[in-house]
Specification:
Layout lengths: L3 E2 L2 E2 L2 H16 L5 H10 L9 H4 L3 H18 L4 H9 L6 E3 L15 E3 L9 H22 L5 E6 L1 H7 L2 H10 L1 E5 L5 E6 L2 H4 L5 E6 L1 H6 L1 H8 L5 H4 L8 H12 L1
Parallel strand pairs: 3-4, 5-8
Antiparallel strand pairs: 1-2, 6-7
Helix pairs in contact: 1-2, 1-4, 6-8
Length: 258
């Protein structure tokens, strides 16, 4: 089963390699060739659930991974470039889509649409949340190894261009340190954030001091509002583990010292 891709044919091995990369980038799972080949040839998802990495995901994540693989495969087979050019020459409407790296933003498929820079309602993306959590874990592990304890406070500079290119990895890292995640509506758009239960987080919430660049300030007001509301949440102020809940301690003490 081939597909048009910039005038050529995307072969089986190329599809398998692309799906493997997309799955790893979005969900940090390693899928073997036989599982991916069955998906490409027959849309057979039976082998997916037997994979060790996939079994470690939640039910919602497994469902999202399956949808991602099928939707990406279907979009690869559409090959709309020439059709879209002819449509545009006729003065017809070309549907918009956020561009960027395919691995970070698989929703840019199918090709042949009117690409724009970014969608603020999709930042941080699923890829960014996974990568931000990984970076936060590495930071905390390094600090624990060097000092024997977790940091009470971490300073981050949120650069506009960097977050646009990475789909919001630095934003996701800040959320991961605090122990929060984006809240999505039924269309998958970011509408706010929610705290992860301390039992699931398994560590204190880290206080994060963020400095914003000018581009970030001008282009990402939704993300600024999301981050600015974090220290005021009643759940954060009422958190358990009060002596080690660094984000709570600092959010409570700052207004008193100002």
């Amino acid at each position: 089963m081939g597909c048009t891709w910039w005038g050529g044919r995307l072969q089986l091995l190329q599809k398998v390699d692309l799906l493997r990369s997309v799955a790893h980038a979005s969900f940090d799972v390693q899928l073997p060739d036989d599982v991916l080949t069955a998906i490409v040839n027959d849309n057979d998802m039976a082998g997916l659930g037997a994979n060790i990495d996939v079994q470690a995901l939640t039910n919602d994540q497994r469902a999202a991974l399956g949808d991602l693989l099928i939707n990406t495969l279907s979009a690869l087979d559409e090959g709309n470039e020439i059709k879209a050019i002819l449509h545009a020459l006729d003065g017809a409407f070309i549907a918009p889509v956020a561009g960027g790296d395919l691995l970070k933003n698989p929703e840019m498929l199918p090709t042949g649409r009117n690409i724009h820079g970014f969608d603020p309602f999709r930042l941080p993306s699923q890829f960014a949340m996974n990568e931000g959590a990984r970076q936060a874990d590495q930071l905390l592990a390094r600090h624990l190894e060097d000092t024997g304890e977790l940091p009470t406070s971490v300073a981050l500079v949120l650069w506009g261009t960097d977050n646009l290119k990475s789909e919001g990895v630095a934003i996701a890292q800040a959320l991961a340190l605090i122990g929060a995640r984006p809240r999505l509506d039924s269309y998958g758009r970011v509408t706010g954030a929610e705290l992860i239960d301390l039992e699931n987080l398994g560590r204190p919430r880290i206080d994060v001091v963020m400095t914003l660049s000018g581009i970030f300030r001008d282009l990402l007001p939704l993300q600024i509002r999301l981050l600015a509301k974090l220290p005021t949440w009643p759940q954060l102020r009422m958190s358990l583990w009060r002596r080690t809940q660094f984000a709570r301690i600092h959010s409570v003490l700052r207004p008193m010292s100002s």
